[in-house]
Amino acid sequence: MSKKDDRVEDLAPKTEPKPIASEGKSASKLQKANDGSRSQIPPRRIGFILSRPDVPLNCQEELEKKKQLILVGQLRAAESHNKIQNMRQRYRAMRADEINLLISSQSTARKAIRLEALLPPFQEEIHLKDTLNKLERKRVEEIMSDEAGVTINRTL
Predict the structure, then answer these.
(1) Domain definitions of the chain by residue range
(2) Which residues, at least 6 apart from 110, have a Cβ–Cβ distance to it below 8 Å?
(3) Can you tell me the mean pLDDT for 11-23?
(4) 45: alpha, beta or left, given left = phi > 0 and alpha = psi -120 to 50?
């Protein structure tokens, strides 16, 4: 033997491994339990149905899946609506801050008042209410669609 082989033998363990069966359980059961397989543990029930293309779903599972898809869609829509609202609110606040800064940096009070009249920091929302009822609206639409003016031209 060479010196290299002697070094490899020195590194090898000299003790024999103890048999697993000495602990009171059979070796095959312990080996199965320790090999990482989960064949003896039943699968857990999961709240969501995971779709697999190779397994057909029964009627109740398909209904559940449709409900889940609708719920996910509603949640995404609500989330995007909230994001848009937050962005609008942030934009309005930043715009108001900029306009207030411009107004406060004017050299005279007259210029500041004039700029504030032209650029209000917060825009007032205008809510236009429809004041016409159905009959009045129909009458207005008739007048608007009459190109010849027969409806409103009268001779006395």
Answers:
(1) 58-122
(2) none
(3) 52
(4) beta
